[in-house]
Amino acid sequence: MSLETGVRTNGGARIGVYVCHCGSNIAGTIDVEAVARYASELPGVEIARDYKYMCSDPGQELIKQDIRDHGLDRVVVASCSPSLHEKTFRDATADGGVNPFYFQMVNIREHDSWVHEDVEAATEKAKDLIRAAVRRVRHHRPLEIRRVPVHNEVLIVGGGIAGIHAALTLANAGKHVYLVEREPTIGGHMAQFDKTFPTLDCAACILTPKMVSVKAHPNITLWSLSEVSEIEGYVGNYEVTVRRKPRYILEDVCVGCLECIEACVYKKGKVVDEFNLGLSMRKPIYIPFPQAVPQFPVIDPETCIEFKSGKCKKTCVDACGDRGAIDFQQEEKLEKIKVGTIILATGFKTFDPKRIPYYGYGVYPSVYTALELERLVNSAGPTGGEIVLRDGSKPKAVGIVHCIGSRDENTNLYCSRVCCMYSLKLAHLIKEKTEAEVYNFYIDIRTPGKGFEEFYNRVAEEGVHFIRGKVAEVYPESGGNGRLVLKAEDTLMGGVMRKIPVDMLVLAVGLEAQADAEEVRRMFNITCSSEGWFMERHPKLAPVNTFTDGIFLAGACQGPKDIPDTVAQAGAAAAEALALIDTGYVELEPNTAYINEEECSGCKTCVPLCPYGAISFREDTKKAEINEVLCKGCGVCVAACPSGSIGQNLFEDDEIFQEIEGLLAHG
Amino acid sequence: MADERKTGFEPKIVAFFCNWCTYLAADLAGTARMKHAPNARVIRVMCSGRVDPQFVLEAFAKGADGVLIGGCHPGDCHYQEGNYKALRRYNLLKRMLKDMGIEEERFRLEWISASEAERLKWAVDDMVEKLKALGPLNLAVPSEDFAEGVSVA
Question: pLDDT tens-digit profile of B59-101?
């Protein structure tokens, strides 16, 4: 087709303009017929139509048919955001026999009909935008999509249940996975739980086999005590540097007998045990919990006598004997890997209830967070699964206060999604283990999940009390018996003020983004929502994708979610990564910059501007040169070139000038 | 305010939004049906660093009452530091525009991330309000000469 030869037709273009109604999404606010009529009179426009749904098959067919019947060589579609359907219409254009880049999309939904109410103003805006696109598209050049190969390997950041599930899915499909976890063990929060709602499966029973499989899998390289420190490259071709902190144990020598821990000069735990949230003490050489993976001890240099003074008897080394697996000289190591895709599964942190002082957390010893209670209930926990207070006594009455740090304008506005259900679960477990009276103070009980409402009914039938009202005050009962009084307005009893004395207060803390989510986000070049959760590409249709191609999200780093949802999302992220890998290549936008050699004066202004080192200066020709593979298409050099000799595909100067003039060429 | 409404002046704003942050914020404002003034017309660029000062001059020359550049927050640029380059050019160009008699309020650079639909709405509404108070742009130089001086070869 002669149209494909790349003639820069400024005069002879035959443009088709399509104005989408999007049902009433656009047509409800914009007079689409008037817009199409207007467009039909613009210079170069051969045909202009409005249609109910341009993205539908018949809508796309309309474009193809018109290309054939009217000899169109340019297409403009005014509909939604290009992030949704630009590809759809480019493909339709190509199917019609016209280069897909002879297409321009106009966003009259997100940027117009959805944000304006005045029909006249919205319609005028749509006309302006279309006029600009019509003028722009005449200057488009035919381009080819670039293809680059995709590396087989996948990096997964975070070894909680999300990272574990995604890693196993990919490894089982024959792909090599690097699983990077910053703690000494994988397992994440799930490893701290006792039972899981609503089925009451034992968390460890369902999690630990998966943890062991990760370690044993030939396709998984597990790096614990490790963090990603640098990332370069692009989809299909990421170069990642991982910082592996020393464990001071040689992993290839250690057999995991744990005799060194037993032999430590400290006969008892001396340091706060992070895994048990400070409810117990550990030694400087320790294993976080019995089923930890990898099953190696770790030495904490902050508290180990050898590290502090160099004068320890080193009984641990003696216990290890000939194996010699303990190495105080071990140093941090940097590993460089190449991966094609990355899954972020960095999880969440729980809300710190000290931020709401009147609940008395950290002041009254009988106030616990729900996660601390998980450890108390857990038979591998600090009390062997007995629910006892810090003084060793069993509580006879327990209060659980919901929505701590959730649904509150002073902390977080969102609902943390899991607290109602875990509170019900904890209520059931407390009742089962102690026969204490359990009082739930709630705002609303939210049980939208498979088997959730049934579980709520069951717990209610077991005699757990439910009081609808926020606890307004917590104070010690007079008489110094150690009990706390919870004061709350019972909104189902006409606002009666209830004062309930309890031996133990459990705070159902919400979920928050990790403290370093912001740094992680920057490193991986993705976006966070205002609450700090990693942002998905589209809340409904691309829930595990990010705006950076090849980087996917799994689990609570994207927003609060329970285990089933986390696992489902991890599977989806793995499938997305797999789809990229198995295709073998990715198509990149052809928006790279290039030098018009004849015009280049060799001033070198552009060379230091490129953050990717894609521009070099050729000494022989005295001209700049752009490496298309390294160029990511930001266009910074284009804007900076004093002689105007750098072009950018898809964003050429003349295209943008035409767009500007088109927008303003009113009437 | 009443006087402005009487004159019915609706400022025209040409907005250059980067593909990764501000354009998406405008999309999000749409998805959230966050109503704002209909005066801005968006031109999508991959990075705010792509905005050639001549684009801005051209917009003013061709009748824009204001130009708004939207980019990622410092440190968040999808291309590492394109937004800093936009900022440097902006600072320089702003002084130049002032010398040409174009009021400061007519040329703005805003950092708006993909999740900040609220900030986008504010930036547009606030700019429209200030431009309404200023009234239409009257170039000191005839617009043809102005355009002549800045248009690319």
Answer: 999 999 999 999 999 988 989 899 999 999 999 999 999 999 9
Domain contains B6: no
pTM equals: 0.86
Facing residue for B42 by CB, picked from A111, A638, A666: A111
Q: Give the integer Cα–Cα distance in Å for B61 and B59.
A: 5
CB contact under 8 A, A114 and B33: yes
| In a domain? residue B3 | no
CB-nearest to B75 from A83, A117, A522 is: A522
Cβ separation of B12 and A121 shorter than 8 Å? Answer: no
Contact B14 A128 (CB under 8 A): no
* A592 three-state secondary structure: coil
Residues of chain A short of pLDDT 50, as ranges, are 1-10
The one-character DSSP state at A326 is B
Tell me the mean pLDDT in the region B118-125: 98
Say if residues A514 and A353 touch (Cβ distance below 8 Å).
no
In a domain, B23, yes or no: yes
Tell me the C-alpha distance between B107 and B103, whole Å: 8
Nearest-angstrom CA–CA distance, A316 and B117: 57
CATH number at residue B28: 3.40.50
The order of strands in the sheet holding A226-234 is: A226-234, A237-244, A333-339
Residue numbers of the domain that contains B142: 11-147
Domain count, chain B: 1
Residue B1 covered by a domain: no
- Please report the pLDDT score of residue B142 as a whole number: 55
Kindly report the three-state secondary structure assignment for every residue of A154-201. Answer: EEEECCCHHHHHHHHHHHHCCCCEEEECCCCCCCHHHHHCCEECCCCE
Q: What is the pLDDT of residues A4-45, one digit of tens each?
A: 333 444 456 999 999 999 999 999 999 999 999 999 999 999
